Every structure is written in C-alpha cells, then in structure tokens.
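S1.2 Input.
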Amino acid sequence: MRSVILALCLGAASASAATILGFGAEADYYMPMASGDFSYTNNGVTTATHFSNDTTSAYQVGLFLEHPLPLIPNFRIDLTPDSSFNGSGNKVTLNQTDITPYYEILDNVVDLDVGMTFKVIDGKIEGVTSQSFKEVVPMGYLSVAITPPLSPLSVEGNVKYLGYGGDSFTDARVKANWKIAPGLAAQAGYRYESLSVTNHFGMNANVDFKGPFVGLNYRF
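S1.3 Output.
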C-alpha cells in the first residue's frame, strides 16, 4: 500500500512538473443568496440567525501560479471578502480566503487538478449582541476543465469538501469561459456553499449560500 501511495504522489508531482510556467487571475461580480439557520456561541453567549433567501452583492477574486518544478505543488488563492447577509435580527458578514496547493494530473483537452484547500473564514455577527469568529478549515480540492480544440468555449468545475463525524462543508463552482482576446476570457457560472455543523467551532449551522457570478479571467 505504501508503494502504491508513493507511486501516485510521484506521478502527480511528475505530471505537475510537466507544465510550463503560467499564471492567471480572475474577478467576478457575485450574487449569493443565504438560506437556513446559523448560530455561534462564545463565552456563554449564543447569537442565532435565520436566513430566508436573503441576498447580497459581493465579489470574488482568484489567482494561480503553475511552475515546472518537480514535487513542489502549484498554488492558488481565492478571496471572497465582505459578503454580508441580513438575517432575522442580525447582520452576518463573512470573509473567506482559500489557500490551495495542488498538483496538475492532466493538462490537455481535459485538465485535472487535485490538492488541499485551507479555507480561512473570518466572520462578524452584528445585532443585539455582536460577536466575531475566525476558523481555518482544511478541505480536499478537485478541479476539472474541458477545452475542446480550436473552440473559444471551455467549461470548468471545482469542489472543495470536508466531511467528518456527520458534519460537512462544501464549496463548489461551475463556469463557462468564452475567449474574447489572447489570454482573456469572459466567464459566467454558479457557486454553491453548504455548511452543516453540530457543536463544532462554537457553531451550529445548517445553511446554504448559492448564486450566479459573471466576470473576466486572464491566463498566461
């Protein structure tokens, strides 16, 4: 079993190292909607919020770097700052920073990446009682992209997931890209986040955040 795991890791590192040096950036206007229940307890004080399809306007930014160095993972960072939702009696603001080292397994018509995301959640609850929290959540990462030859259109999807002891956290995106200039593409897609937690990190939650986004990306 150890030899199999080692072979898979070396194969992933070799595949990752086969790519040329590249980087990319993307920025989106994001329109998420919140539904479900979220509560946070700190120092014996509990703040409970119910979301009933509450919507907001936000943005999300992503950057990545791929390189030809063997064994060293590629790197991606995604930012979703200041997403504020007005629930029942409280305003909840979330800042998310996703730090993702990953390996590129395939790089052709089909692009396949695997890695791990460290999601930093910095939250603030404002209401009768104001509270703040910050947690780092490790999540598995999988990304797939399909780019037909000679086509200006490509499709991508990625998922970050953690499941343990009945709790789960999912952050998934799917999008289509349309090339409009060398290296530059317009993109449109949908993002879905689901948090189901019972008595962990001071939280009890069964809440979804989901909505469409549109933006631009540049890749070199």
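S1.4 Remarks. The chain has a mean pLDDT of 91.
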